[in-house]
Specification:
This protein is α/β, with parallel strands linked by helices and 625 residues long. It is built from 22 helices and twelve strands. Helix content is 47%, strand content 11%.
Length: 625
């Protein structure tokens, strides 16, 4: 009995030490963020994360206990072998998860969950953001973690002996297994442990550092079907006035351009492009001179926000008006995608030629499905653009100067009226752009240089088509799929991380107008349809006109929560811990209103996502899908 108790206590203590070391490595790998915590908060990371570390240590101990005991009672001589193999396997695999999580956090700003595994179908693109420095950090940290863990494991358990095969021993180990369940569950109550048990600070990095990586991944897997359910728990029926206010389709005054004649549309979707890169939108001076000039000379929407935090969410919102829900994406569910309204479908029905150009691989994150559901959309990607030995490529694909050059030729060759979209890629991490005449310094140097490069490509393109006869009949819409934490190192939930440009230019825009109305991705397709086609699509429930000043707000989603912003301020609500984690408001009344509004909006979005029915498009029927 004593030997069994001694063995499993040592196992439990080993895993507790292992996860403590994992937490230390997480803080070291993200040293720039750790430096801002202070001694007290850093100590709080370990103290408040201790409960989840105890829980995960219990899981590992229970697994080793069950496997070792079951096999030993069948054949006692293999107890030690099974014990060691199980321990080694857990060390290698959990160390891998911990180091991957620590390094990815630099880019994502949230803990490792099932999201990462959704990109493994296109491994080349999934690894495109990885830099040499990332690999060096990963290899060194992983080897150090595994080596130190194995050394301790072998030293502590080198003389371990099999337990006796006796009914008393069986009883003792069953009791010990029951005891191990206590730290696993965090107590004896009905619901005793959750992510919120590790959250203790207003600093999101401190909270994330406290969360046990393996526990979080298990939680993500076991609750993958409950994420939308959690959003739907909000009782929207108790707040009918909020629904009417949020989803009212006001009339508004639509500007008249081109005397009502058909207008060509070129939409430029800039990859990972924050408003913080544009001086006139409150950003850094000198990074994007062309976008800055356009925002001063043409139509600029200064309070425009991305609906989601990733490319698949941003693009689906831009074309279908669907919000980018947390921990989910409509592009992962083609049956749901087929049931959504689509901006290109409306333009095709009005006689427009539609196309999408991208210098990379549209199979990444299932982006292709967003355009294959459109009956006659031309899809032009890397394989079609990649001609000639002088075409420069980065990790994500063909650089922007070449795709903009292709776009110039493309719009001169296709029939009018047309709606064509170019999705850029050079401003995506790792920012591996060709040599530029402008080089920035500092920790955001690569990001700023990449933004300057893409801006210069955009400027050259606009200058070229201004000289063509198609310019006077063309509207150019410039926006972004999402923003990122750069410049600076914004928290993953901060509203400025979702603030992106929206500029209307082209020959049909004759003057400068600043629109300070708040809007998001979901509003753009509805606005363009209603403005240019006179189509008022009631199915776009979450959309409103960007010219309607009676409804001015933007809702945005990040991985585990959502935020609402309007002229009174901003509130961000975290669904995992069920509380407001960010607020910048004028009064308590406004805080409560914005909190209720974003919860209402999120709940309705989750309900609509569930209700979507597959409506097989003609294009899919022809393909036999």
């Amino acid at each position: 009995m004593r030997r069994s108790l001694y063995i499993w206590l040592k196992v439990f203590a080993f895993w507790l030490l292992f996860f403590t070391l994992a937490k230390i490595l997480f803080l070291l790998i993200n040293a720039s963020s750790t430096a801002d915590l202070g001694i007290t908060t850093t100590f709080g990371v370990f103290l408040n994360g201790f409960k989840l570390d105890l829980s995960m240590s219990g899981y590992c101990t229970l697994l080793m206990m069950v496997l070792s005991l079951l096999t030993s009672f069948l054949y006692s001589k293999i107890f030690t072998r099974v014990f060691n193999v199980t321990g080694y396997f857990l060390i290698f695999s959990l160390a891998l998860l911990s180091i991957v999580d620590a390094r990815l956090y630099h880019y994502w700003g949230f803990k490792l969950d099932l999201t990462a595994f959704g990109f493994l179908s296109t491994p080349k693109e999934a690894a495109a953001s990885v830099q040499t420095s990332d690999l060096v950090v990963f290899v060194v940290a992983y080897i150090a973690f595994v080596f130190s863990s194995l050394s301790v494991f072998k030293r502590v358990f080198r003389n371990i002996k099999p337990v006796q095969r006796h009914w008393k021993t069986i009883g003792v180990n069953l009791v010990l297994a029951g005891v191990v369940l206590l730290p696993i569950r965090g107590g004896t109550g009905v619901a005793t442990i959750g992510l919120s048990s590790a959250y203790f600070s207003s600093n999101s990095f401190a909270n994330h550092a406290a969360v046990n990586t393996t526990w979080n991944l298990m939680y993500s897997y076991l609750n993958q079907d409950n994420s939308l359910k959690k959003l739907k728990e909000f009782k929207t029926a108790q707040h009918p006035d909020i629904g009417k206010e949020l989803f009212a389709k006001g009339k508004g005054n639509m500007p008249t351009i081109n005397n009502g004649q058909p207008i060509n549309v070129v939409m430029i979707v800039l990859e990972s492009f924050s408003a913080g890169l544009i001086e006139n939108l409150g950003g850094i001076d000198g990074v994007t001179p062309n976008l800055n000039r356009l925002s001063q000379e043409k139509w600029s929407f200064t309070n425009f926000y991305s609906s989601g935090d990733r490319s698949d969410k941003g693009l689906s919102s831009l074309f279908t008006g669907t919000p980018g829900l947390p921990e989910s994406s409509v592009l992962r569910f083609p049956d749901k995608l087929n049931g959504l309204p689509h901006m290109y479908t409306h333009f095709e029905r009005s006689g427009y030629h539609t196309s999408i150009l991208y210098g990379g691989n549209l199979d990444f994150a299932n982006l292709r499905s967003l355009f294959t559901v459109v009956e006659e959309c031309d899809i032009v990607e890397k394989s079609s653009i990649e001609t000639g030995p002088n075409v420069e490529k980065g990790k994500w694909g063909i650089h922007d100067q070449h795709t903009f050059s292709y776009l110039e030729k493309h719009i001169k060759a296709i029939p009018e009226p047309f709606f064509t979209t170019l999705y850029t890629l050079s401003s995506h991490e790792p920012f591996d752009v060709p040599s530029t005449s402008r080089v920035f310094e500092g920790k955001d140097a690569k990001c700023l240089t990449a933004a300057w490069y893409t801006d210069s490509c955009l400027g050259a393109f606009l200058k070229a088509i201004e000289a063509s006869d198609v310019w006077d009949r063309t509207l150019v819409v410039i926006t972004a799929d999402h923003a990122i934490r750069h410049p600076g190192s914004l928290p993953v939930y901060h509203p400025e991380k979702f603030h992106i440009p929206l500029i209307f230019t082209g020959g049909v825009i004759k003057n400068n107008t600043v629109f300070d109305i708040f809007g998001s991705h979901t509003d753009l397709p509805y606005t363009l349809q209603k403005w240019l086609l006179k189509v008022d699509d009631a199915e776009m429930k979450f959309s409103k006109s960007l010219f309607d000043t009676t409804s001015s707000y933007a809702n945005f989603f990040y991985q585990i929560g959502s935020g609402m912003i309007d002229s009174s301020g901003c509130v961000v609500y975290d669904f995992h811990v069920d509380k407001v984690i960010y607020k910048d408001v004028e009064s308590d009344l406004n805080e409560e209103r914005l909190k209720t509004s974003t919860r209402y909006y999120s709940s309705e979005a989750a309900r609509e996502f569930d209700k979507l029915q597959a409506k097989r498009s003609p294009a899919l029927k022809e393909q036999g899908k």
